[in-house]
Input
Amino acid sequence: MSADLNRRGARIPHYLSPLSLAVAVAFSPVLMAADDDSSDELALPTMQVWGTQVSSSSEFLSDQDISIKQADHLSDLLRDIPGVDVGGTHSVTQRINIRGLNETDLDIRLDGASQYASMFHHIGNLTLNPDIIQMADVQVGNNSVRSAAVGGSVSFETKNALDLLRAGEDFGMRVYGGYGSNAYHQGSVTAYGRLSDKVDAMVYGYTIDRDNFDDGDGQQTFGSDGTVSDILVKFGVEPSFGHRFELSHDHYRDKGDYSPRPDMAGSANAGLSGDLELPTEYTRDTTTLRYQYDAGGSTSANATLYRNAMELNRDESQITIRWPANRLSDNTAEAENLGATLELTSLTELAGMQHEVTYGTLYNRQESRAQYGNDPWIDENAITTAGYVEDRISLTDRLTVTPGVRYDHFERNAETGSDTFDEVTWALGLEFAVNQNLTLFASARELFKPPQLLETFVYYQNGTILADDIKAQTGLNKEIGARYQQQFGEHRINANLTLFQTDLDDYFANTYDGTLNSGAGGYIIGNNGDVEIEGFEASVGYGIGEFNSRLSYAKSDADNKTNNTPALDYNGRSMDVGDSIALNLSYYFPAVGVETGWNSQWVLTEDNVMPGTPDKDSYNVHSVYAQWVPPQADRLTLTLGVDNLFDEQYYSHASRTGVARGFELDDYEPGRNIKVSAAYQF
Output
C-alpha cells in the first residue's frame, strides 16, 4: 500500500518521493485549483501489527505491506523502493544497492551502530535479520551533511517492548512459525514487558533452517544449506518525562556448509571447485547504549555508544585449486567498529525567521584483522571523526532553505599504506510549498570519500599497494523535484518523482599489475577517472476505500566520463541496474479481517556493459499474498503468500553476473516459493 491514509491508521510520513520539478510546474495550475479542504486526514483506528515501517526519500510503504511478506531476506523489505535493490540470494550475500552503488558507498546502521565492513568479495558485509526490524529509513542519494556516504544511507531500528505491548497490558509474548516450500522453515519466540513504571525489557529468539533452493528453471543450487539464528536482548529505562536510555545486545549467527563462492551460481561453483563445500560461520555482535531526549520542547538530543563486531570463519583446508599453501587451514577474518555519535536539535527564532538547527559529531574506529591457521595476516585500522551543523530556515510560511557544513577527518593505518585525509563539505536544500498538497524542492550535496581499508578475508593484502598519487574521491550530488498528495472524497492520490545527477571525481578502482612482487603480480588501488550517475525515481499512488495501489519507475545510468566506458562495480561488471517498474495492489476485507495483494516487478534489459560482455537480462516477477487476522481473535495472524508466482528464471542486476573462466556466474533467484506462517500474541 502506498497510500498515506490506510486501514492501519492515518500515518503520514515527513516526506514522500518527489514529482519532477518540470512536471510539477507544468501541472501546478490544476493542482492549485483543487479544494484544499478535501485533504483532511481520516480518523482511522490503529491496530498493533508485527511489521516493519519502511520510509525513504523516494517512497513510503506502510507497516502491513512489510509484515505480510513474511520476510526472510533484506530484498523482501527494500526492493519495493524506487532506486533500491538487494543483490545476492545466499544468506551470507545480502548486498544493498542504491542507484548502482553498493554498501561500501552507503552509511548503514543498526540501532545507531555502524555496519561498515569490507569482508570478502564473495560474501556480503551485512548480517541482518529482517524479522526483528521495526523501522528502516532509506535515504536514496546523499542530500544532507548529516551523512558522509556517497550513495545514501539506510538506518535500521529493531523492535522494543514498547513497540509490542498492547494498550492496558504490562507483559506479552509472541510465538511465530513459518514454512517456505523452496526451501526453509523458521520460527521465533518473543517475550516483553514493563518491569516497572520506568523500566521495560524484551528478549527475542529466532532461527531459520535453509536447504538448497530451486531456481526458476527447476535447477537446485548447492552450498546454501545452513542455519541462521538471532538473539536480541533489550532494556529501556525512562527515569523522567522525555528521557530514555536503551541498552541492547544482538547476536547473529549464520552457520552451514557453504560453497567457496556464495555469490556465484551453483553451476559456477561446481565448475570452479567441484562439489567442495566449506564449513562456514559468519557472526555479528552489536552492543549499543542509546540516550534520547525529547520532551516536546525546543530542544532534542540523541547519543549512541556502540560496538559492532563481525567475524567470518571458513575451513579452507580442502581447497587446493588456486589457493596458496599457507591458506589451506581454518581461517578467520574480523571487522570491528567502535564508535559514538551525538546529535542535538534546537528550535529558535532569529530575525523573524524560525531556525531548526542540528549539531552533530561522531567518532568511529574500524579494526580489521585476519588470521590463516595460526599465522596472523592482517591487523589494521582506520579512524573517522566528523562534525557538522545544519540549519533548516523558514524564510516564509512556504519557503525553507537548509544550508549545512561538515568536516571529516580520516586516518588510515593499513597494510597497503598509511595516510590522512580531511575535507570540509557543504550542502544546500530548498523547499517551496505551492499549497498544502504540492511541494517543490531542490538540493545539492558535496561528496567526499577517502580510500578505505581493503577487504579483510583475502590473501593478497601484502601484494596490494596504494598508488603513490592516490587522491580522495570527491563529487557532487544534485536533485530536483516535487511531491504531491491530495484526497478527493474517498479518493486518495499521491505522485512523486526525483531527478538526480551524481558526479564522482577520481573514482576508486583496483588495477592488476603483473610486474609487482617480483613478477608474482598484485593490485594497485588508485583513481580511475570521473563517474557520472544520472536518472530518476517516480511513483504514483491511488486509493479508495479499502483498495490501495502504487506504480513506480526507477532509472539510473552510470558512465566513466574519463574512459568513455560504463562505470564498473566491485566485480568488474557495469554497476548499472536495468530500469525497474513496480506495481503493488492490495485490498482489505474488514468484515472478515483479510488483506489480499499482488506485487509485480519488471526490470528491463541493461545493455550499458563493457564490450564483449553479456547484457544483464530483463525479467518480470510476480507475488501474491493473503493475511487473516480474525476480528474475534485478533491475537492470531495467519499468512499465505506465493513468491515468484510464475516460476521466473531471473537474477537481480545487483547480484553477481557475467562469465569467468568459461563459467556463467549469474546468481539466480529462487523459483516459486509458497509461504505459510502463523503467529499468536499472548
User: Anything to note?
Assistant: Residues 1-48 have pLDDT under 50 and may be disordered. The two ends are 28 Å apart (CA to CA).
